[in-house]
Amino acid sequence: MIVYAYLNSNSTLCCALTESAVPPGVSYTSFTVNSPDDVVYVSGTIRTKTQEELLAEAKQKALQQLSQSTMYYIYQYYPDWKQRADMIDLTNAEAYLTYEGLNPTQVKQLATQQILSGASYTQALSTLSQTFNSNTNPVIGYWLEQLLKASYRQNFVYQVKEQYYSISHQLSSATALPLPSYTISVPFPSMP
Amino acid sequence: MGLSYTMTPFHPTTVYPDQVTIELNLANQNFTTLANIFMNNDPTTLQLKPSVGGNAYANPINLSSQTTDYLLEPGQVGVVSFSSQSLVPLNVAVPQPSSPLNPVMYELEVFIVPVSTWTGLPFMLYPNNTTYQSQFQDTSFMIGEVVGNLGPTNISYTTTPYSYVNWYTLPSGWCQGGPVIVKATISYAGASYMPQITGITGALYGVSLHNTNWFNNGTSWTSLGSIGCALLDGTLSLISGFALVRRLA
Question: A135, A142, B3, B88: which has the fewest Cβ within 10 Å?
């Protein structure tokens, strides 16, 4: 599109979208641009943005959008109230397991090892139960379940954040437009 | 429109070349214009065309082919239809208010369909068919259904002013394929007062409320301006649809 750029009496940069929209008697400069936003007034000169400026602006927008999208992606599967409930469950689980003479650090260590090895939730729970609840105490079983579920969900957040940092790096290091497209694709763990 | 009317076409006390031909032609044009306000362009029907009075939404005044801005009277409705256009002039003149307590007000309703699939959709209004750097402050509240990576809700307050009225429809200004409806109330109390544009936009999966203040710094609003929609990179999209403008006061 062609815009007709000028400074008004308040030294505000204006871009008329048609030649007839320029106030009478005002001198202007015409530019062919994608958007009127691509015209700037810098150091006393009206000019179009350079490729570097356009790239920097696009990066800033894309990074803001990525940050927002990442937050929404996490909340979509793991809402705020559930995150708070998990923190309470973890505290209670640790207290009860300690009361029963178990070492919560060892439980969390084995849970993390199972998650990082790619075990499914069902497999991991079975391993945890065999190791720490061979007598199938139902209350211990319950808290092991809660602890494991919270760990899987927290690992989901960790994986999304990892993907966020990876995409963020790709966007930040882009050297030309258009910026690479992206999709956040971490699956939410399947749990009963 | 395409019609003209000349007040007092005859100047009997002034003599100039081809006076008779010129003035009779003007008079003939006046007769044609006046006849056109009647049904079938025939005064003997004794029935006025409904659109002559700008009979509100039932018979809006067609401003699509206006080449200059049209001055709507209070209560009148103008309509602009557009097809595959990136920038749509509303062709509506904005008069200067007689006092700040008698502002000029308009209701703008826009129906937009995309010409091709969009990836972004801010709705834009360019008063005076011009952008004014950093003079438009938008406050918005947006709600959108979860779509892909977009969130369920977003509340935003724009701290960086825009250079025109810039209304995002969803948290990321994202829309695909569906129609968009914009409804805005515009008030202008004079060049010394800040114009205000308040309204709502609805699109596929989302709705948003906006209020934009134009820190006009003494600039008069003389033409309602143009509308458009942009992709996320700022490029104007091709759009089709129509805009209804009703002057409220």
Answer: A135
